[in-house]
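Reviewers of the previous submission asked for a worked example of the structure-prediction workflow described in the proposal, so we include one complete record here. The input consisted solely of the amino acid sequence. No template or homolog information was supplied to the procedure at any stage.
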Amino acid sequence: MKLLNYTSRYLALLLLLLITIWAVLLYYAMLDEIYDSLDDGLENQKMLMVQRALEDPSILTQDDPEFKKHVYNFTSISKKSYTNFKESYRDTLMYMLNEKDYEPVRVYESAVAYDDEYYKLKIITSMVEEDDLMHDLAFHLLGLYLILVTCIILLNNVLLRKIWKPFNNLIDQLRNFKIEKNTPITIPETNIEEFSLLNDTVDKLIKKASDSYIAQKHFIENASHELQTPLAISINKLELFLENNELNDQQSKELASVLDNLGRLTRLNRSMLLLSKIENQQFLDEELVDFVILSHKVIKDFEDFAQHKSITIKLVSQVPFIYKINKDLAIILLTNLVKNAIVHGKSNTTVVINIEQSIWSVSNNGKKNALPKDQLFTRFKNTNTTQKSTGLGLAIAKAIATKYDIDINYHFNDQHVFTLHFPYKH
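From that input alone, the workflow returned the following structure tokens.
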């Protein structure tokens, strides 16, 4: 959810709560004002009736307790009742001819004196129906709420969108930013202090990250190159030394051990360089790769090695499967998994490669127990007993799989099975 919509949602809920509370308070305030106005009007009518009685005493004798002729009524009372009488206001219902229904009215009762006679004056007036008032108030407040929410949404999409434009511009650039491609970032100018601080901070972080990436890249490449040359020279000199000098068995074994270690160091150097390049996203070119054709190529490359170990490689399924990936990395991925299966497979067994829709797997017969899953794809963690292994084959495979959102996992079911689950894209 975008920030503008997120803000609008909470503003709408807050407005709904505030308007509801305000509506309740307004309703009771209006009722209080209506009652106060009605009571003032009734008191004014009382004064008018008293003045009229002075001019026309006959109204004092028109006793009509049901108010069928008038909205007032004089009832004779004793002096004692007059003395103890307390004015009162009350609400009741009265049948209205025009409405043909009972409607609420306000009744005012008071006592008046005329000469030596005393009367109770009752005056009635119509009042606002509370259910109608509540209905009209709710209707208009709902309209007000909808208008306010609409205005807020328009405000967010016009004014606030313009205010947040530098931020959204920066976010769009960061979304497409790739440090390995040296994608340029144009920091937008803004007068808003918070956005300006954010822009400066992002600019500094990007420059620092880019400089660190370039420095690391150069260091790895230079270190690999500098190591590769003396290693190659050392191996060549030792091989020449073995060829040109007669050594006893012990000396030959020691020199052979040194050559093996130097060879392992050379392979380790290449593997570390490759792993670093993968993690630094230096393999950018991608193409649609047919994994059936690629599997045939890998099998052909390992035919001699497999034959040497008396192992057969078999492709049991050839479901067409194409995936967009860097071809060199795809070859390395399959090569490492197939090589691992051959190295750890038993003689006179078969390494089986199976291809299904979005799934590639390789299985072999090796140790009769499952391997520790938590260590399989960890660097320098391997179950191979030979010292020629660098311990990075599966780590490289894992890095390549992660780069292309491929799920790589292992399970044991009488056979050791490594499976690649591809996200279906093509």
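The first strand starts at residue 72 and ends at 77. We consider this example representative of the routine output the project will generate in years two and three.
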